[in-house]
Recover the amino acids of this structure.
């Protein structure tokens, strides 16, 4: 019974750490893709008297000229008494960005663009952009904090488990040491437990992840956000497997090294 | 007979507080030695120092050619493979069967499981525990546990067996059985035996030496 409890404690700790790591990576991916979605639909509009082919801003992904022929034709039809060909029309550009700038950086970009004498207007739509940016940042910080708390709790559970293991395995390791057993021999039983428990924790974690990814609520949220999650589950399984094995093996090595004399 | 253990101006103890002061003694191969003295005289300290559990504070302690003053941990592990240790409280692994406990030193030495098992079965036969192979230590009496512990101590043909109060707490019948096993190991396998005991056994029909401890001083009586 106590052995089952001991297994359960390590598996629970590992599962909480693995799930928090996976959710952290999933949230990051979702936020990144959502951000890219927003960026695709967002641009800074500038009105310039001269043609622009290059701007020295690291955030700029592309400079696209806005075709205003439709609007001109419309105006020609509406204002027949005005000779539009006599008027020199400015150039309109859309600046597509690579990353979502902070409100402060957006102001800096705006100031930079306005510093060109040829640029007459800059439209950043900063108020709606700021709201989205702040919302994303809030989500990022909250999710990170949440994951860190779960991971810390998991680690605390593992530390507790180390104490239990020290008590459980101390006598056996001491006796083995009296007969000159090498490190790997003394720790063999613990390493075996650690390996089995990390596999069980991985299976439990993936069961939970599978259930979550196939849940109606998750699918609805992803569909509402209009994004495609780009996490490769095989790669994630490998990452979580390495983390799980590493944590449990390092824990057991700590117990073998730190055996109470 | 060659010298197996040699102590010169030896100080032993814990945290620089010597229990044994300026000891000089020798133990030869195939010796049967009783280390006697009252409780607290330092018998256990000497036994523990011989397998490297108590550090040498000053002087020299040489066991099987290994100087234990300032010895590295890896050397201690190496030395222990050539020793057999027996304790008053048996120190059998509670979650292992008697058979597996006896196999332990052979498994540590890297001998294959089947050979170790065959050897353990033979020895358990000799110590009259063949019917308790699959039992756990808690299911055995004190005398039976001590016989299993002796079987474990001799299975790998050690150079020397160090036994700390191996018969105290046992009834006369069990104590005699245990002492017979030590004699058998000494006679049949030429294993040096060193037994820490508060007194000498009443009847003992083989040649032995006595090292006596009193107030931290060591006297070779025979």
């Amino acid at each position: 019974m106590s052995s089952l409890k001991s297994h359960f404690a390590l598996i629970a700790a590992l599962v909480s750490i693995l799930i928090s790591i996976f959710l952290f990576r999933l949230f990051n991916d979702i936020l990144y893709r959502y951000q890219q979605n927003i960026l695709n639909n967002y641009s800074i509009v500038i009105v310039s008297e001269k043609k622009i082919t290059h701007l020295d801003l690291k955030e700029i992904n592309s400079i696209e000229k806005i075709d205003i022929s439709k609007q001109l034709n419309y105006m020609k039809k509406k204002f027949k008494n005005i000779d539009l060909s006599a008027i020199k029309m400015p150039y309109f550009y859309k600046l597509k960005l690579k990353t979502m700038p902070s409100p402060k950086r957006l102001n800096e970009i705006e100031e930079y663009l306005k510093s060109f004498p040829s640029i007459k207007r800059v439209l950043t739509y900063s108020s709606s952009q700021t709201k989205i940016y702040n919302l994303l940042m809030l989500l990022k910080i909250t999710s990170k904090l949440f994951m860190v708390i779960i991971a810390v709790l998991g680690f605390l559970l593992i530390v507790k488990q180390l104490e239990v293991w020290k008590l459980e395995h101390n006598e056996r390791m001491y006796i083995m040491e009296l007969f000159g057993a090498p490190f790997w021999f003394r720790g063999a039983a613990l390493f075996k437990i650690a390996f089995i428990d990390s596999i069980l924790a991985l299976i439990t974690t993936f069961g939970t992840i599978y259930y979550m990814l196939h849940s109606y609520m998750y699918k609805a949220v992803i569909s509402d956000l209009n994004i495609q999650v780009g996490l490769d589950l095989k790669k994630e399984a490998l990452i979580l497997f390495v983390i799980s094995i590493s944590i449990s093996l390092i824990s057991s090595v700590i117990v073998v090294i730190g055996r109470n004399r | 007979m060659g010298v197996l253990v040699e102590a010169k101006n030896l100080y032993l103890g814990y945290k620089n507080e010597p229990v044994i002061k300026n000891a000089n003694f020798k133990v030869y191969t195939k010796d049967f030695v009783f280390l006697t003295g009252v409780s607290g005289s330092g018998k256990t300290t000497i036994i523990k120092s011989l397998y490297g559990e108590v550090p040498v504070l000053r002087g020299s302690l040489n066991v099987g050619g290994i100087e234990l003053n300032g010895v590295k941990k890896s050397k201690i592990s190496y030395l222990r493979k050539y020793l057999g240790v027996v304790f008053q409280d048996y120190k059998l692994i509670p979650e292992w069967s008697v058979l597996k406990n006896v196999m332990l030193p052979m498994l540590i030495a890297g001998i294959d499981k089947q050979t170790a098992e065959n050897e353990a079965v033979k020895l358990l036969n000799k110590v009259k525990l063949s019917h308790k192979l699959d039992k756990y230590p808690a299911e055995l009496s004190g005398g039976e546990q001590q016989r299993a512990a002796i079987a474990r101590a001799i299975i790998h043909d050690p150079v020397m067996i160090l036994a700390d109060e191996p018969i105290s707490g046992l009834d006369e019948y069990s104590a005699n059985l245990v002492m017979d096993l030590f004699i058998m190991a000494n006679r049949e396998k030429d294993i040096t035996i060193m037994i820490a005991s508060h007194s000498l056994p009443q009847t003992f029909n083989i040649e032995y030496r006595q090292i006596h401890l009193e107030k931290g001083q060591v006297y070779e009586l025979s």
